[in-house]
Design goal:
This protein has about 180 residues and is mostly helical. The protein is built from nine helices and no strands.
Length: about 180
C-alpha cells in the first residue's frame, strides 16, 4: 500500500488526536514521539501494512511469536533486521494500545501467541531497533526508539485515548476498523 500523501485528512486526524491525547490526558509534550505514533496509525491503516512481514513461502506473518523467530534468524545488523524489530515494536504497540481486547482474546486461543507478552516483545523490539540505529550513527532515531521502549506502556495508554477520541468523533472511520 502506498503512503498517504502529506496533509491527507486521515493523517491530520491521527496527528491531532495523538497530540491531544498525549498532551491533554497524559501531560506528555513530545512532538517526535506523537509524530511517530500518528505515523504508525497512518501506516497501519491497511491490513497489508499490519501484516507486511512475510515468511519463506511469502505468506504474511500474523503472529508476534513468528515475527520474533524470523527476526532472530536474520544476520546481525543491517537494514532488514532493524526493519523487522521496528515492525515487532510497532505491531505490539498497535495491538496493545488500540486493540487490547484482541491481545486478550489471543490468550484464550490455541495459537503461538497465547502465552506471549506483547508489551515485553514490543519494548524489546524498540530497544533492539534503537541499538541498531545507534550503530548506524542515527542518534535522533536511536533516541526515539529508546523512548518508545522505555515508555511503551505510556504509549499504549495514549493510543487507547486516541481510539476513545476517534470513536467519539462522528467523522472518523466506523469502529476504527482497518481498511482492507
Amino acid at each position: 500500500m502506498r503512503d498517504l500523501p502529506d496533509g491527507h485528512p486521515l493523517q491530520r486526524m491521527f496527528s491531532g488526536l495523538a497530540e491531544h491525547a498525549f498532551f491533554s490526558h497524559l501531560g506528555v509534550a513530545d512532538p517526535p514521539l506523537t509524530d511517530y505514533l500518528s505515523g504508525l496509525l497512518t501506516r497501519f491503516l491497511h491490513y497489508d501494512s499490519v501484516y507486511r512481514l512475510r515468511n519463506e513461502s511469502g505468506k504474511p506473518i500474523t503472529q508476534l511469536t513468528e515475527m520474533v523467530l524470523e527476526a532472530e534468524q536474520l544476520p546481525a545488523g543491517g537494514k532488514t533486521r532493524r526493519e523487522y524489530y521496528r515492525h515487532i515494536g510497532d505491531f505490539a504497540l498497535f495491538w496493545t494500545g488500540l486493540y487490547p481486547e484482541v491481545v486478550d482474546r489471543q490468550r484464550n486461543r490455541m495459537c503461538k501467541d497465547a502465552m506471549v507478552n506483547y508489551t515485553t516483545h514490543g519494548k524489546r523490539g524498540y530497544l533492539i531497533t534503537s541499538r541498531l540505529e545507534e550503530a548506524e550513527h542515527h542518534d535522533a532515531e536511536a533516541s526515539l526508539f529508546r523512548r518508545l521502549s522505555d515508555q511503551f506502556e505510556l504509549c499504549a495508554v495514549g493510543l487507547r485515548k486516541v481510539r476513545e477520541e476517534w470513536e467519539l468523533n462522528p467523522d472518523s472511520p466506523p469502529g476504527g476498523e482497518l481498511l482492507r
